[in-house]
Amino acid sequence: MGPIKGITMKIGIVGCAGRMGQMLIKEVLGTAGCELAGGTEGPGNPALGKDMAAHAGLEPCGLEISEDAEALFAGSDVIIDFTLPAATANHLELAKSHGTALVLGTTGHEADELAAIEAAAKDITIVKAMNFSIGVNVLFALSEQLASTLDDEYDIEIIEMHHKHKVDAPSGTAIGLGEAAAKGRGVKLDDVAARGRDGITGARKKGDIGFASLRGGEVVGEHTVIFAAESERVELVHKAASRGIFSKGAVHAARWTEGQAAGLYDMLDVLGFK
User: CA-to-CA distance for 247 and 105, rounded, in angstroms?
Assistant: First the structure.
């Protein structure tokens, strides 16, 4: 089930002043069937009080960036959240309190935070994705399929590179790719993940799924899933040239939440792959 024709969704954005937030502002304002409900930032942010659209480089829209998250959730049908894991618990409570759907693009959650998201999804509609790009979600599906087809004679390594400002590693997308590959192999990622190799590590353990993270410049996001056997290597590669692919996917997911039952969904649900 996709966006309902004739329905205008009121979409709010938390963390709206950053690069991703500005892309989301542009996407919401430029998408038919969407109304920008408002946006927030944390206390002391220099963007507070500025016009949202003007801050994103557009003509003013009359909505100021606020720090009143309660009012934003109350006045929105759905909230898009690409902030930090520390903010998620509060956003979940606000969403439950006001019956607001939540599109969650924040990465780097710990196990207890993920459990809280799953618990909240019993009451509200949540779309959580490691990556909102359509191409990356195809990569998830292909990684699972290849891992299922190729046996453990093919070593799986995942390499990701992002801009120098990114604070978590591996990226949420890389972890998602690892989970997809592990699912294809019929194992749990936590049991086979190999991260942060350094020094004398010994020989590679058969069946491991390795991760390597690179940071530098203004790279939007690059991911490579390698299946390496003795005589051949298969690589799946995705390179993002613009953050616009993420904002477009997130707004599509926000519109999709209209009429959906409470539950925890991902982009494969939104795109009809499930």
Answer: 10
